[in-house]
Design brief:
With 125 residues, this protein is mainly alpha-helical. The protein is built from 7 helices and no strands. This is Group 1 truncated hemoglobin.
């Protein structure tokens, strides 16, 4: 039996993940490189689904992501690698502001990185 706490638990659970995602989209929607992609999005839905996605991705056994398939949602948005990298920069900055440890931050960014192929469909750099 593995008694090691999940990243989700080490992070501080539901409240902290909610805070991370809220602050994150606040930044993203002010970012010239990213904001146009969200013009047609229902942001309260995105935040809600993203919180569930992140909770599950970070190891919360009580959360089952029930949102849309990531490829279906992102494949026609023409997202570039540069935009994906910027997405990670915002996440990193906010997690650092929240005083997440270096190791936990690396783990979080590694999880996100695994989804690059489901998000980035543009061949542009
Ligand atoms: C540059 C990076 C990204 C951009 C510009 C972007 C953009 C978007 C947009 C516009 C939507 C709303 C789509 C719609 O309502 O039709 C969305 C939804 C979503 N995205 Fe992303 N995304 C990015 C990266 C990611 C990453 C890295 C993940 C996960 C690790 C992710 C997970 C999700 C989820 C879970 C939803 C909600 C799906 C639903 O509503 O059921 N996105 N994204």
């Amino acid at each position: 039996m593995d008694n090691k706490k999940s990243l989700y638990e080490r992070f501080g659970g539901d409240q902290q993940v909610s805070e991370l995602i809220d602050q994150f989209y606040y930044k993203v929607l002010f970012d010239k490189l990213l904001r146009d992609k969200f013009l047609k999005a229902d942001m309260s839905r995105v935040r809600y689904q993203q919180k569930r996605f992140f909770s599950q991705m970070m190891g919360d056994k009580n959360t089952q992501y029930t949102g849309k398939d990531l490829v279906e949602v992102h494949k026609d948005l023409n997202i570039t690698n540069q935009q994906f990298d910027k997405f990670k920069v915002h996440l990193k900055n906010i997690a650092q502001d929240m005083e997440v440890s270096g190791a936990d931050l690396e783990e979080l960014l590694d999880h996100v990185e695994k989804h690059r192929d489901q998000i980035v469909f543009s061949k542009a750099v």
